Structure formats: structure tokens, C-alpha cells
Amino acid sequence: MLEKINLVTKEFFNELEKTENLKSIEELRIKYLGRKGGFADLFEEFKLLPGTEKPAVGKLLNESKVKCQNSFDSLKIRLEEQTNNNSQFLDLSLQGREISIGTKHILMQTLNEIKDIFKSLGFSVHEGPELESDYNNFEALNFPDNHPARDMQDTFFVNEKFLLRTHTSPVQVRLMKTTKPPLRAIMPGKVYRNEAISAKSYCLFHQVEGLYVDKDVTFAELKGTIVGFAKQFFGNDIKYRFRPSFFPFTEPSAEVDIWWQPTGKEGRWLEIMGCGMVDPNVLVNVGIDPEKYSGYAFGMGVERIAMRKYGIDDIRLFFDNDKRFLQQF
Ligand code: DAH
Are 286 and 140 in contact (CB under 8 A)? Predict the structure, then answer.
């Protein structure tokens, strides 16, 4: 009988090894472990044995059945897990996941467009730091200490000598100090103002500064460059005007307006940038001889001109990072 038990056990394990799904493992259970299965038969036979043989045979029979039952149970669990995973994997009715790919922020698109236009006009691109000295941001640009012109720009001071730059004009100073004329560059970047946040103003925005210094640079050249830019950026039929203005670092100074005509509404003039001829005091401050050289400069707000171009009426939209806004561009 001992041999018979070993044989049944061996056959059980042979078949178990070949079992690959829940259906065949159930057949295996019925054949060996079920009420009329192989082990049940062995137990019937065991009952008929003489008492002397019972201890040894009973021990082997019990151990063999437990071994088979344990192996059976663990394979069944594995097969059930596999079936669950497979059916999840194969659930063709499951909705696909949308992968959302970002777009370039409208401000960066606008900035790139501005850069491309000026590059095509022979300007190079330079950048300066956002943490700037009071000297570069104000003094070198002819805003004397305590001059009321400083109030034109509400400033975040870091300490007495340093601040978050309020405009990109200090990059002009840096560039003129290190590069001899002729120089022709634009200087894009972030600027900061300590202003109440509203639809029209934000504590942070972007500007593009422009500078051209050479011998005999004239206001007519400034005008030609700005008009060329405005036509390329807003379209050939753009209506514009130059209006006299004041900046400490340019003389004479002007502001440029474009005619804004929203459909169905009254049109009006909107300012898009400041500009002028570099003040001789600024040239002296950076070590350029104003008797030999002259230059023009301009500065525009990127948000402002993007708002004009795309009809956006609240500057805060650029910084909210709301996908519904950003996806429109
Ligand atoms: N820095 C000025 C501002 O932030 C803009 C500006 C005006 C820049 C005239 C210039 C300029 O270079 O010539 O309001």
C-alpha cells in the first residue's frame, strides 16, 4: 500500500506541473482530492488494513495528502491572481488615459516672436540679473538720489543697495560698460514692481529693452526700427503714433501708441512702449564719449503687447496657469 500511495502522489504532482488554468486545476482536484478521488480511494483501502500496518501507512497517507493539498492550494491562488490580472489587462472596454502634452506659454511665444523680429534687424540678445544694484537700476540711468522720477517705479528693495530690478534698462548699463560701440542689442527679462495687483498690473512682468549705440544715430532711425517692428508684429495696416514723454535716461523721449479697434466697441490709442535718444549723462556714466557717439533705446512690456495682440483683458491670466486659458494659444 505504501507504494500505491507514493504512486498516486507522484502522478498528482506530474499532473499538477502541467496545470495551467483554473479549469484543469478543478479537474485535478476532483480526480485526486475530491470525494471520489484517488486519495478518497486510498483512505477506503486503508480502513481495511490489519491494525499492525495502520500506523505506518496512515502516517504516509496523511502526510502525502497534506503535501498534495498544500501544493494544490498555492497553485490555485496563483492561477486566480493571474486570471484577475489578465482580465484587467485585457478589459477592452476600459477608457484610455489621455496624455496631455503642454504647449509653449503664450508669453514665451510672444517673446520669441519679438526676438525673431529684432534678430532679423541685426540686434543680438543679452540678458542681465533680476537682482540688481540701485546704482544700475536708477543712478546710472540718470535717476539721481531722491529724484521724484524714482517714484515712477515702486520698488522691492532687498536692502539699501540692492533691489529686484524694476525694468530691463539696467542691462543697457551693464552692456555699455563691457562692450564698445557700435552695439545693437535687445535685452529681454523679468521685472518686478511693488504695485497693487489688478487686471492691469501685476508684481512681476516681462520687458524687452532695446539699445543701439554708434556714431551719428538719429531719432529717424529709432522711429524706422520701431515702426518696422510694429508692422511685423501687429500687421502692416497698424495705425501708430509717437507722443512726447519723459524718461530720465533718454532725451528726447517718446511713447508709442497703437490704434486699438475691438469689434463692436469704440477704438482708442493704447501705449505699447517707451523710447528715446540715450541721454548723454548715461553715456558718460558708462564711459562712452557723448561727443563721439549717440544712441537710441526703447523698452516694451511683453504682457502688454501680448494683451493688445490677442485681446486679453486681464494680466493675471498669464500667471494663473489655468489650462483653459493656456490651451487657447
Ligand atoms: N524702462 C522704462 C519702463 O520700464 C521703459 C523704457 C522707456 C525703456 C524708454 C527705454 C526707453 O529704454 O528709452 O517704463
Answer: yes
Strand pairing class (124-125; 183-192): parallel
Mutate to test the pocket of ligand 1, among 132, 137, 167 (most ligand atoms within 8 A of CB): 167
Write out residues with Cβ below 6 Å of ligand 1: 167, 169, 209, 247, 250, 274-276, 297-299
Domain 106-326 fold is: BirA Bifunctional Protein; domain 2 (3.30.930)
Smallest CA separation from ligand 1 atom 8, residue: 299
5-9, 79-83, 111-115, 257-261: which is most confident: 111-115
In DSSP terms, 163 is beta-bridged to 132, 157
Q: Residue 169 C-alpha to ligand 1 middle, in angstroms?
A: 6
Distance of alpha carbon 185 from alpha carbon 48, whole angstroms: 107
pLDDT of 116: 98
Alpha carbon of 120 to ligand 1 centroid (Å): 22
Dump pLDDT digits (tens) for 111-153. 999 999 999 999 999 999 999 999 999 999 999 887 766 766 7
Which residue has the least CA distance to atom 6 on ligand 1? Answer: 299
φ, ψ (nearest 5 deg) of residue 313 = -110, 5
SS3 for 277? strand
Q: Phi, psi (5° rounding) for residue 212?
A: -135, 120
Q: How far is the CA of 246 from the centre of ligand 1 (A)?
A: 10
If you search the block for the grid coordinates 553715456, which residue do you land on?
A: 283
Could you give the angle at the alpha carbon of 183 between the alpha carbons of 140 and 129, nearest 5°?
Answer: 50
- What burial letters (b/e) apply to 181-214, b meaning 16+ CB within 10 Å? bebbbbbbbebbbeeeeeeeebebbbbbbbbbbe
